[in-house]
């Protein structure tokens, strides 16, 4: 058991577990963000709850940060190991004949998502950590009202930021289109339910990023058209 | 109609030579020839010119032995499906085509000469656990005396049709051997005769696979598409779950 993470299958398994966790987190993140379209008040309340509820802040948030870092670091380790497994490349290789673009380019879609995570942290997470842990302000208020919805709207005033978010979500969709079902295969689940699961995975991989794109574009257009 | 072709072939004198692609012309190639027969024609030309013939692996020439390899126009065993290189026919190509022919590429499959690679890493994986121990002292029990579920027997048989050619490794972008090892683990994991050594088998075979320097599977599915015997990805999933169970036990 101790050496499991040193084996190729153990690393795949760990990669898949972190992927499951991140996919669940993504769903939860989307469920809260979509509230900003339908009910700013509910979005504010949900955001304040998530931002101040101690189990979320002190247990789930550190697990999430660890999950994100682990997934990226393990992804890089696997990529380096895989590259060393073929030191001489083919003069002619027809990868498209037997595999999808998404499956062959997980490292590139992953790097695009990593760059986005950096931007997203700069936009929302670092200011939030600063307000709560440096300034010590846990009220969630600005000028007597909840600040979360206004902060969200303000970020999407910029054309460039909105475009960057849309591009990042397209890469997220490409990553998930392979990653969702790949994670199940890695934990040894390939059976009579696989076909149905593949369909669900494709729907998840398209609908969740599309939903995030809708939220970003909705707030941007609200600003542009107002 | 017979064809005139340009061949771009990897030539490498020995394991330590750097190697390079060399162009050759062959003419009057019948579409009914097999790919290996076309290479025989080329080699006859080269021998007649006192040049070194192109070294390539072959044996049964009927898709059973797993000896022939070759990466043809960017695909293991060439552009057709469910076949080995010896079963590839020249009718898959057109007059005037340029065909690129390379050895299977993987750190664990070092080139010996030209298009021949050393696939003994597969043998070492098999030695690590691809067997069952049976008493052959005269009291051997007939395997058919043990009832086996029909579905399991069929699935085990399908896994056992792997001929160990290495196309899965050659075609995988990570040079992963997991389809091969998955098939070898599965063929015993599904049968009662394989249960006694099941834990050690999967742990030892995976360890040997990793030690040989094969890459990690990222589930692109390319191996399943290019496998001449249609070995399914289900075998990798089965190996994964067998490995996890074995790791928890061990």
TrEMBL record, chain A:
User: Which positions, given as ranges, span the membrane?
Assistant: 12-38, 58-80, 101-122, 162-180, 201-221
Q: InterPro entries, alphabetically?
A: Cytochrome_b-558 (IPR011138), SQR/QFR_C/D (IPR034804)
Task: Specify the superkingdom.
Answer: Bacteria
- Keywords, A to Z? Membrane, Transmembrane, Transmembrane helix
Question: Which GO cellular component terms, listed alphabetically, does the Swiss-Prot or TrEMBL entry include?
Answer: membrane
Which NCBIfam families does its entry note?
sdhC_b558_fam
Q: What is this protein called?
A: Succinate dehydrogenase / fumarate reductase cytochrome b subunit
Its source organism is: Ichthyenterobacterium magnum
From TrEMBL, chain B:
For this protein, the record's Gene3D superfamilies field holds: 3.10.20.30, Alpha-helical ferredoxin
Signal sequence interval, chain numbering: none
A single GO molecular function, which one? electron transfer activity
The record's section on InterPro entries has: 2Fe-2S_ferredoxin-like_sf (IPR036010), 2Fe2S_fd_BS (IPR006058), 4Fe4S_Fe-S-bd (IPR017896), Beta-grasp_dom_sf (IPR012675), Helical_ferredxn (IPR009051), SDH/FRD_Iron-Sulfur (IPR050573), Succ_DH/fum_Rdtase_N (IPR025192)
Concerning Pfam families, the annotation shows: Fer2_3, Fer4_8
The chain positions of domain 4Fe-4S ferredoxin-type read 153-183
Cofactor(s) of this protein: [3Fe-4S] cluster; [2Fe-2S] cluster
Q: Which family does it belong to?
A: Belongs to the succinate dehydrogenase/fumarate reductase iron-sulfur protein family.
Put simply, this protein is called: Succinate dehydrogenase / fumarate reductase iron-sulfur subunit
Q: Which organism is it from?
A: Ichthyenterobacterium magnum
User: Lineage of the native species?
Assistant: Bacteria, Pseudomonadati, Bacteroidota, Flavobacteriia, Flavobacteriales
